[in-house]
Amino acid sequence: MTSRLFALCFGAGEPRRLARFWSDLLGREPVADPRDGLTLLPGDDTGFRLRFVPFAEPKTVQNRMHFDLTSESPEDQRRTVARALELGARHIDVGQRPEEGHVVLADPEGNEFCVIGAGNEFLAGCGFVGALACDGSQAVGYFWSEALGWPLVWDQDQETAIRSPHGGTKITWGGPPVAPKPGTNRLHFDLTVPAGGDPEAEIDRLCSLGATRVGATEDGTGRVAMTDPDGNEFSVLTAVRPQK
Predict the structure, then answer these.
(1) Which PROSITE patterns does this entry report, sorted A to Z (predicted)?
(2) If one looks up domain 4-237 in CATH, what number appears?
(3) Which terminus of the chain faces fewer neighbouring Cβ atoms within 10 Å, N or C?
(4) CB-based contacts of 108: which residues, under 8 Å, 6+ apart?
């Protein structure tokens, strides 16, 4: 039994405003669900939900996760950048070089994302959301491959990437040096256990792979808080149905 990636969760000062930005940019309609918060559903079985929930801490450092959006042509890249700026994004400088061919932006709450230039072979066939690019060690890439049952599609020079067997967005980790983690991540994964599975057994399996159980919430959602080998928070949701 392996966990399923139920959602990527964005902590936000204004969840509805941030959900609307990503809804308009990605072309997904937001869904209000009492169990799930404000959610953008995936278009097919290669994707995962995006959830937007309240988060009180101000953003002071670069996120450990960001989207890499793909482009079919230079014109397509310019259109995506222009659309993002129109919706409330802004240009930012994270040390990128002009010759790298991608545009770095921040959404209305400062969450970084990139619009990649056309012809990127690594992201070919991955869709508009080509990658969720993460700051992390080789070990954490191995952990998430085992945790989700997603095969490694890149493992070189301590950089790793995994992808669902169904295809779609890649999740990548850039290897060392890994930036210090000063506080709670604004973005984190929510996992579910397949129907009929034993949540406690799955939590034990994740711990055997290198995760740490932090605790469970008292709000009746069955949300078990954990951290991965790099200390990144994630949750195992034991009281919601897995996405079909």
Answers:
(1) VOC
(2) 3.10.180.10
(3) C
(4) 14, 17, 18, 21, 87, 88, 89
Tell me the DSSP string of the chain: ---EEEEEEEEESSHHHHHHHHHHHHT--EEEETTTEEEE--SSTT--EEEEEE--SPP-S--SEEEEE--SSHHHHHHHHHHHHHHT-EE--SS--GGG--EEEE-TT--EEEEPPTT-STTTTS-SEEEEEE---HHHHHHHHHHHTPPEEEEETTEEEEE-TT---EEEE--SSPPP--S--SEEEEEEPPTT--HHHHHHHHHHHT-EEEEE-SSSS-EEEEE-TT--EEEEESSSPPP-
- Give the Å distances, CA to CA, from 48 to 39, 105, 132, 163: 10, 22, 11, 12
- Other residues' Cβ atoms within 10 Å of the Cβ of residue 188: 23
Over the range 38-49, which residues count as b (16 or more CB within 10 Å of their CB) and which as e?
Answer: bbbbbeeebbbb
Question: What pLDDT, on a 0 to 100 scale, did the predictor assign at position 244?
Answer: 39
- The model's pTM is 0.92
Q: Taking a C-beta distance cutoff of 8 angstroms, is the pair 6, 191 a contact?
A: yes
**What is the Cα–Cα distance from 117 to 74, expressed in whole angstroms?**
7
Regions in the chain scoring below 50 on pLDDT: 241-244
Q: For the segment 64-96, what is each residue's pLDDT rounded down to a tens digit?
A: 999 999 999 999 999 999 999 999 999 998 877
Q: How far is CA 206 from CA 1, 17, 189, 240, in A?
A: 11, 34, 14, 19
